[in-house]
Structure formats: structure tokens, C-alpha cells
Amino acid sequence: MHHSDHAKAIAASCAAAEAPGALGVALFGSVAKGTDHPHSDIDLVVAADTGPGIRVLHREGRMVTVSRKAPDELAAAFDRPWEAGAAVAAWRGARILHDPEGLMRALQARAEAWTWEAIGPDADRWAAGEFVGLAEEVHKVHGMLALGRARAAAANRLLIALSLPGPLAAAHRILYDSENDLWDAVAAAEGPAWARAWDAAAGVALAGHEAGCAAALDLYRLAAARLGPHLAGEDRAVVDTACNL
Predict the structure, then answer these.
(1) How many Å apart are CA 99 and CA 113, to the nearest integer?
(2) In 93, 124, 196, 243, which residue has its Cα 20 to 30 A from 217's Cα atom?
(3) Are strands 95-98 and 42-47 parallel, antiparallel or unpaired?
(4) How high is the pLDDT of residue 32?
(5) Where are the domains of the chain?
(6) Which residues contact 160 (CB under 8 A, 6 or more apart)?
(7) Are 49 and 21 in contact (CB under 8 A)?
(8) Is the dihedral of CA 74, 77, 83, 89 positive or negative?
(9) pLDDT in tens, 111-162
(10) Which residues are bridge partners to 47 per DSSP?
(11) Residues sharing a CB contact under 8 Å with residue 188, sequence separation 6 or more, in sequence order
(12) Where's the Polymerase nucleotidyl transferase domain (predicted)?
């Protein structure tokens, strides 16, 4: 059996096991879209009024992640800037496996109708706030380099590289149904300078340690150009200081 068909069969079996007491079950991610590879996990979302949480299962050699959430919590993702970009795209590509009362279809329809205008100002405020908070990592990279603490500098450089794309995706109004798609989507939106710096900071390109740290600091400065219009007062001072270290 082809790995995609195998994954879908496992998803159907797990959905049937989850169905009693559930308000709905849907398959998300690459398996739902048919873009999975043989090692992709199988992502199931269960709508239920009880027992929220995440379970990781092993079924026929495959990893299955079961996320159990209340209906209100599933719906709230559309209004949260830190979740909406991923949630909307994920719901649009989801395969509904169990939906006795139409709840999952209603959520999918909401995702299809959703636009960034619904949360635009909130998205900009959230992105700016996250960006300001990452100024601490900029200071740490400089400080750890000065102290010769290479691992600490590297850890903070990675925090910058991995933490900036989420806020920038919101600022660019990017939808992505998997974190695996986030990095390339933001690189495409930000352009070649960002892509080169991110590759060096994250280790895609063969840059040395200090060059990788410098690239992470460049990422912060590049993000400032995009998010700067949403900063004011003390936030602006924090960012300017970090960019000019």
C-alpha cells in the first residue's frame, strides 16, 4: 500500500476510535492534502466538550497526534493573531472524518470565508509586540559573543531566527497550514536579503559561528523595516537600541 493510502487508513481507524463522545474528528496537515512523506505524522483534531489535551500514538509504524479541543477553543483560533495564519489554512485543507452535528463543516466554512481584515489591527499589534520582546535575544547574542560563550550566543541566534517568522507572517498576512511551510513563505515575502540571512543564522548555509550570529542580528534589523511602522514610544526606543548595538 502506498504510504499516503496507509496513513489515511490509519487516520480513519483512529477517527472511528475517537468518535464515541466526540462532536467531530478531522484530519489535518500533509496527510489530509496528500503531500505527506513516509515519515509524516498523522494529525487528527477531535472536537469534544471533555478531556482536552494532546496524545501521541504509535499505529502500524506511524506516529499519530490527536489534539482534543473544545469547540469554542477551535473557533477562537480564527480570532487569535498567533494562531489564525496556521488555523485558517489548516481548516481549509482538512478532511472531515466524523461530523454528526455539522460542527466541523461549520468551522471549515468559517475558514473558507475568513480574511485577514477580521483581525488586521490586532495582528499588527501582536507582531510588533513579539518583535519588541526579541530585542532581549539581540542583546544576549552581542553579550555572549563578547564573553566568548559560543553556545549561549548560538542558542539566542537560533531563537531570533526561529521566532521572527511567526510575527512576520502575520504582518505579511500569510496563511500556512504547517510550520514546515512557514520558513519558505516568509523568505519569499521578505526577499533575498532575508533568505540569505536566515539560511546563515539557521545553519542552512555553511557560515561560521560568528557569521551566523551576525546574520541573526541582520534578521532583526530587516524585520524592523517591516514592523517599524507599528512601533511607537518606548517600543521604538527598545528596537532602535537593539538594532544599533
Answers:
(1) 20
(2) 124
(3) unpaired
(4) 85
(5) 3-113, 119-244
(6) 134, 137, 138, 141, 201, 216, 217, 219, 220
(7) no
(8) positive
(9) 999 999 999 999 999 999 999 999 999 999 999 999 999 999 999 999 999 9
(10) 24, 69
(11) 195
(12) 24-51
Q: What contacts 229, CB < 8 A, 6 or more positions away?
A: none
In the predicted structure, residue 107 carries a pLDDT above the cut 90: yes
Phi/psi at 28 (5° precision): -120, 170
Query: Can you tell me which residue has the cell 490509519?
Result: 10
pLDDT at 122 (0 to 100): 96
> Within a 10 A sphere around the Cβ of 167, how many other Cβ atoms?
26
Which amino acid, one-letter code, is at 48? A
pLDDT digits (tens, 9 = 90+) for 46-93: 999 998 999 999 999 999 999 999 999 999 999 999 999 999 999 999
Is the pLDDT at 1 greater than 80? The verdict is no
For domain 3-113, the CATH class is alpha beta
> What HEC string does the chain produce?
CCHHHHHHHHHHHHHHHHCCCCCEEEEEHHHHHCCCCCCCCEEEEEECCCCCEEEEEEECCEEEEEEEECHHHHHHHHHCHHHHHHHHHHHHCCEEEECCCCHHHHHHHHHHHCCHHHCHHHHHHHHHHHHHHCHHHHHHHHHHHHCCCHHHHHHHHHHHHHHCHHHHHHHHCCCCCCHHHHHHHHHHHHCHHHHHHHHHHHCCCCCCHHHHHHHHHHHHHHHHHHHHHHCCHHHHHHHHHHHCC
CATH number for the segment(s) 119-244: 1.20.120
